[in-house]
Design a protein that fits this description.
Layout lengths: L1 E3 L17 E3 L8 H13 L3 E4 L9 H6 L7 H12 L6 H4 L20 H27 L11 H32 L1 H4 L2 H26 L4 H30 L4 H19 L2 H10 L17 H32 L1 H32 L1
Antiparallel strand pairs: 1-2, 1-3
Helix pairs in contact: 5-12, 6-8, 6-11, 6-12, 6-13, 8-10, 9-10, 9-11, 9-13, 12-13
Length: 371
């Protein structure tokens, strides 16, 4: 079914030469009479123009293009193709283009390569900017004599534990952006427009993650490690559930009114956002209290000093730089494996964060025993 939105917006600067957008609707089964009648009613109400309808009408000259089975096998077409290949202006048509059909999971119909050169250039640019930011962070740390490593009788364990904290914030920076970019695309179909998807998703994630950050301090202030080992497995479970069920939920909810679709999006995103918000406050408390252990138990204390503030500053900086790089990596990854694959990558990154947190706490306990 092909319909031209006429009258509608036009894409040229000359109002006398209007080129209108065209809607192409394709089903993997025949259109029913009720669907055709509904489309015709919408077309009549909006004064649109029919180019092709399943009832048999096709506007010339498109009728030849769509109905003539021999059109693509014409002698002239084959001669032109052969000439372009022999002259070197075209390569083998079977390998020159990526002819995989675009889907909701991989909607990159414009990409003629697995990873377009523009995306590679964008990644190189972001890596360059991130390198500059990293150098500024190192300069800031040296100038203010900030270090993640404290003097200790077990200096090697202290060093390793600090590096595990750094690895943790790298993992959650990557994982957060992989999930956020994927959610924006996933809910685009449900919400209708990119600006609506971006607005609702960012609102939902920022609000729920902010609430999660607050709750992590209220519920697990003395033991941030417990917040990590509880929240990350729950988050991974939710992401895996999204992987299997999210598309079906979106398909069934697409017929709802916009306010209902917005509420559905918020309800689906908030649990993941809440648990994503637990992570950074927890690791900052773990890092700042690595050597502050009560004598009578193994609970963390919330005492910070000036060096702790420097440690948190470094963790913030590393997390921000990683998040910047992750935005481009998530887009490139979605072109290669699709947005469903990005959900699995996000779950794997948070699993890596959990492993690094467990390793950091194990070394912390070794330090407390040695001292």
């Amino acid at each position: 079914m092909v319909v031209e939105d006429h009258p509608g917006i036009y894409f040229t600067s000359n109002p006398q030469q209007k080129i209108y957008p065209v809607i192409l609707i394709i089903k993997n089964s025949p259109f029913t009479d009720s669907e055709i009648n509904l489309a015709k009613a919408k077309i009549a109400n909006n004064n649109a123009k029919v180019i092709a309808m399943p009832d048999g009408y096709i506007e010339p000259p498109y009728d030849r293009l769509l109905l003539d089975k021999n059109y693509y096998h014409s002698q002239q077409l084959q001669e032109n193709l052969l000439s372009s290949i022999l002259s070197g202006s075209a390569t083998d048509p079977k390998t020159s283009l990526d002819l995989n059909l675009p889907t909701d999971d991989s909607p990159f119909y414009f990409a003629r390569e697995l990873i377009p050169k523009q995306m590679i250039l964008l990644l190189e640019t972001v890596l360059g900017v991130s390198a500059v930011l990293a150098l500024l962070l190192i300069y800031y740390s040296r100038r203010n004599r900030i270090s993640l490593i404290r003097a200790s009788s077990s200096s090697s364990s202290s060093t390793s534990s600090s590096w595990f904290h750094m690895i943790f914030v790298i993992f959650i920076g990557l994982g957060f952006m992989f999930l956020e970019i994927t959610f924006i695309q996933k809910f685009l179909l449900l919400l209708g427009t990119p600006i609506m998807a971006l607005t609702v998703i960012l609102f939902s994630i920022l609000l729920s993650s902010g609430i999660g950050a607050y709750l992590s301090g209220r519920l697990f202030r003395k033991n941030p490690y417990k917040a990590v080992v509880i929240s990350i497995p729950l988050l991974i479970g939710i992401v895996l559930a999204y992987y299997g069920l999210l598309q079906e939920i979106i398909d069934s909810g697409i017929i709802l009114q916009l306010p209902q679709r917005v509420m559905l999006t918020f309800a689906l995103i908030s649990p993941a956002g809440l648990l994503m918000g637990f992570q950074f406050p927890s690791i900052t408390r773990m890092a700042s209290s690595m050597y502050s252990v009560k004598e009578d138990d193994n609970d963390y204390t919330g005492d910070d000093d000036d060096d702790d503030d420097g440690n948190i500053t470094l963790l913030w900086g590393v997390n921000v730089i990683t998040s910047v790089i992750a935005t481009v990596l998530a887009a490139i990854s979605s072109m290669v494996i699709g947005f469903n694959g990005n959900l699995l990558i996000g779950a794997g990154l948070y699993l890596g964060a959990l492993v690094s947190a467990v390793a950091a706490v194990g070394l912390r306990q070794k330090i407390s025993l040695s001292t």
